[in-house]
Design a protein that fits this description.
It holds the Pfam family YjdM. The chain is of the alpha+beta class. It folds into 2 domains: about 15-100, no CATH class; about 120-174, SH3 Domains (SH3 type barrels), CATH 2.30.30. Helices cover about 25% and strands about 20% of the residues. It has helices spanning about 30-35, 45-50, 55-65, 75-80, 85-100; strands at about 15, 20-25, 120-125, 125-130, 135, 140, 145, 155-160, 160-165, 170-174. A 3-stranded antiparallel beta sheet has the order 6-3-10, with no helix packed on it. It has a 3-stranded antiparallel beta sheet with strand order 7-8-9, with no helix packed on it. Strands 1-2 form a two-stranded antiparallel ribbon. Strand 4 and strand 5 (about 135) form a beta hairpin. Helix 3 crosses helix 5. The longest helix has 13 residues, at about 85-100. The radius of gyration is 18 Å and the shape is elongated. The termini are far apart.
């Protein structure tokens, strides 16, 4: 039996990456995470390589595992730079929403426009950034935002090289 296609560990089980029928080999820890039980730990540093795999099902599962670690700054940063082909991204997102019974959180800007991950927004007010010692000025463009998964009123983005949390009431989509 081949090694785990996520972390390269031995002792694997076959796992189907839904909603497609592609099968990959996973170790016990990766299999448990793929089925919904994951917590941050050193084991998941393997996702730095897995997200860049040339095999679509491996890349899709790595994306889903990174999305399941929103509290981990390294996972958010890796998601920010990761690139998946559009059809693989759709596949990855379909698997995330298919298993969820919770209502979807919708992020909206000050005008009510729906925000999506990767959008560009403009600050509509000067915002003092706590702990960073600077003020994010009105009119500043924030590209490639991330959505805070459990709070519709918060997004994340980089301003002056710092990753900050921004309230959606102080941005407009551009």
């Amino acid at each position: 039996m081949p090694n785990c296609q996520i972390c390269n560990a031995e002792g694997t089980t076959e796992y189907t990456v839904a909603p497609k029928e592609d099968v990959i080999a996973l170790c016990a820890m990766c299999l448990e995470a793929a089925q919904g039980t994951i917590s941050d730990g050193p084991h998941w540093q393997c996702l730095h390589d897995a997200i860049w795999s040339t095999e679509a099902p491996v890349q899709v599962l790595a994306y889903r595992l990174l999305k399941a670690l929103p509290q981990s700054p390294w996972a958010r940063d890796l998601l920010d730079i990761a690139y998946l082909e559009p059809e693989n991204l759709d596949w990855a997102e379909a698997g995330i929403t298919a298993g969820s019974d919770e209502p979807e959180i919708i992020h909206r800007d000050t005008n009510g426009a729906v925000l999506s991950a990767g959008d560009t927004v403009v600050l509509i007010k000067d915002l003092p950034v706590k702990g960073a010692g600077f003020t994010a000025k009105r009119g500043t463009s924030v590209r490639g935002i991330s959505l805070v998964a459990d709070n519709a009123g918060h997004i994340e983005g980089r301003v002056e090289g710092q990753r900050i949390v921004i309230l959606t009431e102080f941005v407009k989509k551009s």
